[in-house]
Amino acid sequence: MIDKFGNIFYLIIYLVHFIIVGSYAFQLVFGTQKFLEGRGVDKTATLITRFAGSFMIAMVLMAIYIAFIRSGGLDATWAFFNLVFIINVTILCAKFYTLKIDKTGLTEKTRNDGIYAPLVLVIISALLCYCLLYTSDAADEGLGVDLGGRRII
User: CA-to-CA distance for 146 and 20, rounded, in angstroms?
Assistant: First the structure.
């Protein structure tokens, strides 16, 4: 499996990222009541919380498929990694806006992990997106990588 990732460092980053996403997805979908109560959110948010969690579960299932089942490994998966990165960035922006600027619906139970966890995921997914796929493509093509018409050597 390490050969799919180039080295153990990228495999560990990959696993850490999707374990974090998977733990949040599990909390959102299967531990919804505890998740909401821990943040001082009314139970009327259950449907939208589980809806958001279902997208995270889909991301984790795709990550499992790429890492453990797909014969091509990471080849031609740039769109998935870019989508994961963009999702993480938008979650971070929305959480930052809600917690630090708008402050709608904040309670005494509101915690800053709403910003810290997405920030960590943005950093990890950026590493995955730009380092892992860059090195994978560079290894396949020899000297450089073609990024939509621009060649990086």
Answer: 31
Which residues touch 39 (CB under 8 Å, ≥6 apart)?
107, 109, 110, 111, 114
DSSP helix/strand/coil, 51: helix
pLDDT tens for each residue of 63-88? 999 888 888 777 788 889 899 999 99
> Looking at residue 140, what is its pLDDT?
52
Q: What pairs with residue 150 in β-bridges?
A: 147
Q: How far is CA 30 from CA 53, 69, 111, 135, in A?
A: 9, 25, 20, 37
Name which of 81, 67, 79 is nearest 122 in CA terms: 81
CA 46 to chain centre: 22
Give this prediction's pTM.
Answer: 0.78
Q: How far is CA 145 from the centre of its chain?
A: 24
Whole-angstrom CA distances from 121 to 37, 53, 149 are: 24, 15, 29
